[in-house]
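Today's session is about reading a structure prediction critically. Students often jump straight to the picture, but the first step is always the sequence itself: look for stretches that repeat, for charged clusters, for runs of hydrophobic residues. Only then move on to the predicted structure, which in these notes is written as discrete structure tokens rather than atom positions. Here is the chain we will use throughout the hour.
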Amino acid sequence: MDKKNTTIGVLLLIAAFASAYFMRPAPALQTTAAATTTATTTAAPAAVPALVAPAAPVATANDAAFAALVGDNAKATVTTLSNDYVELRLTDFGGAIRDVAFRKYFTAKGSAEPFVFNQTHAAPILAFSGYPGLDQNTHFDLVSATATEVVYRTIFENRIEVTRLYTLSATGDTTGDPYRIRHKTTFRNLTNQTAPLPNIISLGTSALVSVNDAGLYLNVASYDGEKPDVIDRGQLEGGGFLSSMGLTNNPAKPVLENAGKIEWATVKNQFFASIYTPEKPGTGIIVRRVELPPLEGSTRPNIGLTGAIKLDLPVLPPNGTASFAGDLYVGPKEYTRLAKFSHNEDKVMQYDRYFFNRIFFSGYVAPAMNWLMNSMHTSVGNWGIAIILMTLLLKVISLPFTLAASRSAKRMQKLQPLMQAIREKHKDQPQKLNQATMELFKEHKVNPMGGCLPVLITIPLFVGFYSMLQGTAELRFQSFLWAGDLSAPDTIGRIFGLPINIMPILMGATMVFQMRLTPQPSIDSAQQKVFKFMPFFFTLICYNFSCALALYSTINGLFTIGQQLVVNKYTKDDPTPTPLGVPSGTGKKIKNVTPKKK
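Below is the predicted structure for this chain, in token form.
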């Protein structure tokens, strides 16, 4: 059994190391866009703050593996719709959405500039693609523009009239989500001949958001009504370990196309997403990589993703009309907001994407923890305090189970001399050894698995909280104590280039102290070394994760320490189990239960 436990411990360490290696943050620095000047038609009456305009077309390497970046046409006119949450900027070239600025979310800590989604892009959002003559370079006439609605119109080759309508919820309108845009495109055939229609619509371009963004949630995803399908950058970049050794040929893919039912499709990064939900399901999704402007101070390439959805559109009949419509959400990945939508758009959060998340039911735990954290924040108004209160509430709920497990572990520790005596007595009789051991547990009312219960409760909560934090936009740039951003490491300085993160160090200290308080069974030296090393290894793994996760673990550890002190105080005077052959309840102390050597 000891060898088996040692093996399990080593395998867990290997799994943790692999997790730390493959999920380590990659350097990502912010880009600075050069300002360009465009004429602007303001449809919204509210004043619009000065924003950084998208960069001019960026020269990239002549590499077919990447989609080309584009800037504004020199003759483009931008029309703006806005409310208290977003500033939607539409261009008359393509009759589409050039970019979207978020008034509640900023580019950097302390900055007044809103974060702009699709600022540097391969195409405007909802622009046509793959249909020469009717794409992002096609000029549309502005038919009308009000505070909530913009209409564009063009005639393609004197054959097809195309009208594009965009509607944004006004400030104070509670009937719709302020980040959601209603869109409709209508085609009218001006001839007596049938005509195919453009059926590929751009979803936008996603990029890394900060120096702490590892790119794990920068992807293009879709939902078929049952489960989401996620396409990462790695699926297009080729290479890999086997390829580097010449064992396989895995070249970079210029484009990746997945066919199938598409209820919604999204292009997203760690905190923000563009989600298009058509009225009629689409038939496929198309993904390409984008080489973004070089990141300042980094030698690594800055690679984003651009995506498009393929729609199921009929052939346009002679003198006939056809249309498609849908809802476009461009905004933060706020679970409580996305959960209100009717097509499971909340699955964009990826709470249960990885196998490790699924085996610990993260898909159920993470949404509940997100809701609980938001509820606490509504009450106290501070995200750090909300995390602390949420942690304490979870500990109180699980208190009866953990107390029972702690008492069981304490009793189990006191049984170790008797168990050692049984092992010596039946060391060559495995069946009798197991039978005697079970009788000992039954006699002293000890559950050998009782000590595992706190771990079984804690791990799903920890994994769920980790999953929830990865895309929770609400925590971005929220400060607590010395931490300036709960969604990032709480680095207070550097020594020889190494970051000093206080919260993970506190988390590791509580784990070490907690381990010293917790009763430990008699285990071999190899297992003891594994258990002693675990707090340090776990601290190393979590060192560059968001400090909100370390805050949760630290509070959880402090509560457990207090709980264990109480358990140790009230169980230290329990009667010591009597040795074999002595009736229980006599209270006699065990002097020597090890058989004497002959």
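Discussion point for the tutorial: The chain has two domains: 2-23+380-571, 39-348.
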